[in-house]
Amino acid sequence: MKRLPCWSGWRKDNPVYSVQTRIFTLDPQNPDPAVIVQAAERLHADGLVAFPTETVYGLGANAFSAVAVGRIFEVKKRPFYDPVIVHLSDISQIEQVARDIPSLAYELAQAYWPGPLTLVLKKGPQVAPNVSAGLDTVAVRMPNHRIPLALVETSGLPVAAPSANLFTRPSPTSARHVLEDLNGHVDIILDGGDCPIGLESTILDLTASPPTVLRHGGLDLDLLRERIPHLQIARRYVQTDEGLPMSAPGMLAKHYSPKAPLLLFTAQTDAALTRLRDLASALAGRGFKVGVMTTMEDARHFSDLNLEIADLGSAADLPQIGRRLFAQMRRLDSLRVDVILVRAPAQEGLGLTIWDRLFRAAEGKVFDLDKPLEAEEIISLLVKKEE
Length: 387
Ligand code: TXA
Ligand code: MG
Fold this sequence. Notes:
single chain; alpha/beta; globular; binds threonylcarbamoyladenylate; binds magnesium ion
């Protein structure tokens, strides 16, 4: 893979871009054009504007300006080798940011844009090199949300925007989350309420042959399989060599994480759930403040224990679980729990994306509750982490 020069990124000693953050509340269906104009002006002045999308909140900058994009990396403390997605408001804009665009890109864009599908294409020359972290590709998508669409359209700029959280923290699904992580480091936060999907977009690499899914997300894989019979799924958890662009960037094992260690459990039977209950009880007995992220149906197993319960809603309503997932991780963090226990969902449909985010938050720590569990083993794991 060809590397281009890449100048800007977060360095520990750099002064971080600091400003007075202004928040504007907008109607997500019909945003006030006067506010959008102000935000567009900030983008033209190399400022940072956070906005809702249908997936998560984005931290936007002019994709043509390496200075503006450098600020994204600075304020997020994002490693420079992790590239950023460019947001468009119209399919024809692809040509401003990409080159040698395959017809499949247009076909998919027609079918699923605006929506939670990001396409990786060959990068056009105008896009700032740090958007792509020095790769010769660029990731693009058209969000299904009036606010970013209006912002891109009004500014006339493609907008580079990763999720508007500090690197490794759970993605923000409300303006409050953005403020928590980036107050004083983003010019404007456009508050359009909670994000309707709450999980990031599906990323599809069209420069790979066959086309390859790099990240599970809000768009169901079966929809892609209908159009791409040989669709490939990338090896999901790639170790990174510090400083090198990865073949599948952003696939760090530790990602989307709450501060407390999160432990993921697979469980098929009621006996397995009883084991999870017993473990929660044993941990609480050892003085741990225990958080349990659970569906409404499983919650009864824990109701008599002294725990922090984070309600994900009904197991039958995966979209609701998706919407609540990151917000509940943040809530448990704010309650300062010592550990978070979660039962993994089935890896089907949107469940696959939810599973993926939990797996990363758990840094790969998955325990099978259908086998007897050594509570002491888990306790010693946590004690070691605390030391
Ligand atoms: O739903 C979303 O995609 C949200 C909203 C704000 O649009 N954005 C988002 O961005 O999740 P971020 O930065 O958190 O994740 C961007 C990921 C990178 O970590 C990387 O995995 C992938 O997109 N990516 C970006 N450019 C790429 C490229 N040129 N090649 C491969 N992967 C790329
Ligand atoms: Mg992110």
